[in-house]
Amino acid sequence: MSKSKIKNAAKSLKTSQGIHFDQYLDNGEMADQLNKWLLEVSWEVANKVGGIYTVIRSKVPITKKEYGNNYICLGPYNDSFVKTEVEVGESKIDVVREAANEMRQYGVHVITGNWLIEGFPQVVLFDIGSAASRLDGWKGDFFEHARIGIPYHDRESNDALIFGFCVFWFIGIFIDKVKQRQKSYVIAHFHEWLTGIGLIMTRLRGYDCALIFTTHATLLGRYLCAGSTDFYNHLPYFNLDKEAGDRQIYHRYCIERAAASCAHVFTTVSKITGIESEHLLRKKPDVLTPNGLNVQVFAALHEFQNLHAQNKEKLNAFVRGHFYGHYDFDLDKTLYFFIAGRYEFSNKGADMFIESLARLNHMLKAAGSDMTIVAFLIFPTSTNNFNIESLRGQSVAKMLRDTVQNVQSDIGKRLYEICLRGQLPKGEQILQPGDIIELKKCIYASQRSALPPICTHNVNDDNRDPILNALRRCRLFNDRWDRVKVIFHPEFLRSTSPLLPLDYEEFVRGCHLGVFPSYYEPWGYTPAECTVLGVPNISTNLSGFGCFMEEHVNEPQTYGIYVVDRRFKSAEESVRQLAQYMFDFTRLTRRQRIILRNRTERLSELLDWNTLGIYYHRARQMALTRIHPEIEDEMLRFTNESLSNQSTPAVSRSSTPAPPDHDDEGSDEDEEHQTPQTSTDQKVNDQTYRPSFPRPASATHLSLDKQFRAAAVAAANASAAADDEPTLTSAADDEVSQITLGKENQPTAPPANPTKKVDEKVDFGLPDHGAFSDAHDGQRQEPHMDRKASISTQQDFSAPDVLHQSGSSGNICSFEPTSGQTTAFSTPFGDKQNVTTTDGKQQS
């Protein structure tokens, strides 16, 4: 897979299903003309709790390019984060300012401003404490209309309910204000179960708002995996109500499941999470929305290699101090491996990593290798202070370094004075007895009989800590003869630490290999961050990232992406495979590791939000289309007007697209079999040339078989010759479906679809409507203009038919869960549609 192929793969993702994502990135011009708004609701807007904070924050720039100032983030008010991350002030958007002021009149503290991140988005934050007095009334409303009760003692659920009702209240006022000006299209995107109550109440109220719900990991799935359950093998057989009740999260589970059912579009972040949602939420995702990152592009490859060398030297300084007295290995032959994440011992694969390290230690000693592995485990847990031995080690190393620098300075002065006299210095003149005494003091002080510590902090209840117990069981104690050394750092990395003064990005850049053998990882930002930073990494086929890379990259291990099979192999086989991957990595030469880092960094384009943002765009368009089918025509009309306003110069155009950029490493098979290209110039004036749109789906589903394409091109050329049209000169032209040169240059295709509407119904391999879709999906919902957003939902509150359909309709959507497999949420799943792939095979 050459560099040009990676670029083509990224380009094909950007034009998924015939949608050219780049044409919608107009800094909100189309959204402003159509009065289209996006409200993104998350508990982690300007409130860092977990990985969703990274998702929202990194996605803001690409979303602002599409929606401009019509993009607003809604979240809870957290004073500690707002002080450093939000510029508080009155909103410059009239409808937002009016909605916030109206809520303030009823005593709810609403904070508006701008989030101080790239993109500078508008944020609306709700102070949960200011609305706490309404908790009991809102609990009654929620139970009356959704039949979900929330216990008094669950503080997190109580906070979620207050936040959900504040969001629901704000959306109601916002829609009323927006519609007073002109016709509008409002989309509300909710993340995770903590925001589910707002989505449920918005759907119950019948607001004219397209609703999207994204689960980044199912709530019940997290609990089941944390309980050492054989999760994936028993996934179809769990008694969901019983499992949730046993863990005292039944009400949370009902909120998440109801939110997935009420949303117009339900999405998850990966295929593996989609399978999980089918069984645990009884809802199949409409769209998969993989998570991306903001990728920093370097002008030259050596730039990020230099960053690796600089940060590795900082790690070297820490290792010298940590292993003082036992520092008998060569740092030039030392590799740094690491694992990091939330402290979920089994879910994050820490158990498998430690077991594999023990086997790697044995393999290195048996092979007589001179390589040393220092493995870092970064998992924050409860501690009371730094380990005394760890601090002493850094102090001893600093003392020795300062002493050596003083001796060096003195020796330099003596050399200068002696040579200035015209004499050659002798040994006793260079290193004097006083210098030797000072050096001996430092050497004797750096000796110790105890082994270097395996943990940098004093962990509370260390006799019960899973990682420390696993290290003891595997006898990884940092002995002299061990080729694998371990360091457990139970705290988040920060550049102000007196022990390991590095932030997370610097630490990752300094390491050689990231190891993440997760058992439960819906996406996996840690291996994705490694890839973007050019660090080879190991993941599993039970993580969303691993599945994504296996699907889009041919032979990912050649690009530094190793995927351990934990889905179809036993635990013993997976441990062996992981240990073998790490052992093979230790046998690479320094030059081979540099090449591998270069190849890993190339894949970063596939993980950029400029590439993956199209999946969220598709989800939003699908949700809008289900309540406003006319939005397709509106957007197409706007696109046509924009294109017609652009002047098209009369220039000579070639009938053959420009060849792709070749890789620096050499030609691949495709490049070896390229045919010479000829160009046939044709004059195109303003009257005959018109900008064309993506080709119909029938034209893009041609087989990639070389003979078939050659025959198709020959037929097209024959037809073109009969009509005096320019000919297609290369069979490779048909592969470049993203480049169109006007109707006259297209191969013969069905004439019924000269253009392709935005989000035209294409076979996604998933049902067009979610498994819990109702009769209202696909139909425009009339706005309830007579209903005003009220403080309590008691006023004029009648639930629409969406949640009270009869059982004979086949779409049961009641909120009264029952035990067993006949849960009231469940409906028959839509049959999977057959998809004809480009190689002609049928998928089900």
From TrEMBL:
<keyword id="KW-0808">Transferase</keyword>
<feature type="compositionally biased region" description="Polar residues">
    <location>
        <begin position="675"/>
        <end position="690"/>
    </location>
</feature>
<dbReference type="InterPro" id="IPR008631">
    <property type="entry name" value="Glycogen_synth"/>
</dbReference>
<dbReference type="Pfam" id="PF05693">
    <property type="entry name" value="Glycogen_syn"/>
</dbReference>
<dbReference type="GO" id="GO:0005737">
    <property type="term" value="C:cytoplasm"/>
</dbReference>
<comment type="similarity">
    <text>Belongs to the glycosyltransferase 3 family.</text>
</comment>
<feature type="compositionally biased region" description="Polar residues">
    <location>
        <begin position="833"/>
        <end position="844"/>
    </location>
</feature>
<feature type="compositionally biased region" description="Basic and acidic residues">
    <location>
        <begin position="774"/>
        <end position="789"/>
    </location>
</feature>
<comment type="pathway">
    <text>Glycan biosynthesis; glycogen biosynthesis.</text>
</comment>
<keyword id="KW-0320">Glycogen biosynthesis</keyword>
<protein>
    <recommendedName>
        <fullName>Glycogen [starch] synthase</fullName>
        <ecNumber>2.4.1.11</ecNumber>
    </recommendedName>
</protein>
<feature type="region of interest" description="Disordered">
    <location>
        <begin position="643"/>
        <end position="698"/>
    </location>
</feature>
<feature type="compositionally biased region" description="Acidic residues">
    <location>
        <begin position="662"/>
        <end position="672"/>
    </location>
</feature>
<dbReference type="GO" id="GO:0004373">
    <property type="term" value="F:alpha-1,4-glucan glucosyltransferase (UDP-glucose donor) activity"/>
</dbReference>
<feature type="compositionally biased region" description="Polar residues">
    <location>
        <begin position="805"/>
        <end position="826"/>
    </location>
</feature>
<keyword id="KW-0597">Phosphoprotein</keyword>
<feature type="compositionally biased region" description="Polar residues">
    <location>
        <begin position="643"/>
        <end position="656"/>
    </location>
</feature>
<dbReference type="GO" id="GO:0005978">
    <property type="term" value="P:glycogen biosynthetic process"/>
</dbReference>
<feature type="region of interest" description="Disordered">
    <location>
        <begin position="739"/>
        <end position="844"/>
    </location>
</feature>
<comment type="function">
    <text>Transfers the glycosyl residue from UDP-Glc to the non-reducing end of alpha-1,4-glucan.</text>
</comment>
<keyword id="KW-0328">Glycosyltransferase</keyword>
